[in-house]
Amino acid sequence: MAMITADPTDVPVVVDFQFTPEYLALAREQIAQYPAGRQASAVIACLDLAQRQHDGWLPRAAMDYVAGLLDMAPIRVYEVATFYTMFQLKPRGKHLLQVCTTTPCWLRGSDAVMKACREATGVAPGQVSADGLFTTVEVECMGACVNAPMIQINDTYFEDLDEASTKRLIAALKRGETPKPGPQVDRHTSAPEGGPTTLTTIPGGAAPLAKS
Ligand code: FES
Questions:
Q1: Ligand 1 midpoint to CA 124 (Å)
Q2: Least C-beta-crowded within 10 Å: which of 7, 141, 163, 165?
């Protein structure tokens, strides 16, 4: 990867990008899932691979490379990369804190989660923390509403959060730990807090469903 000075938007300009042999093999696997001539259907998968190879963000050079790989007009790739919040268009911290603030999460306290992220990382959403570890972004519903409010950190969901548990998560990441994913309260997946209230035994007399 070659990098030159920042452009006016403070996004480093990367002048070339290409998949490593390992990532190219993964891209070819994705492309092979579609009929001949329909390789553009693999654009999201290829952009995701490019982002993973490139420290979690997509420079324009990577989008152009994917366009060439899939025989697409670059503008078609830019349209996809700029539409989906899963694609980061500028450098981000090692841990991407994607905070859901859609209505169910908001009603259940996503404002407190956002506040905790700001205070624990020391930077506003969209910025990289001084230690290079964190970037917070606000996103729309990620399909875990029953465990609201929640954060996706890189590829992992953390649910049933409040201000204190969010700060604990961030502190653990700062220490280099791997926090337990899923609910951060006493419940198993999406079962009631404190344990099941119905169907407490499995037919046949088996033990009650276990908590997480
Ligand atoms: S509203 Fe937050 S996960 Fe659905």
A1: 21
A2: 7
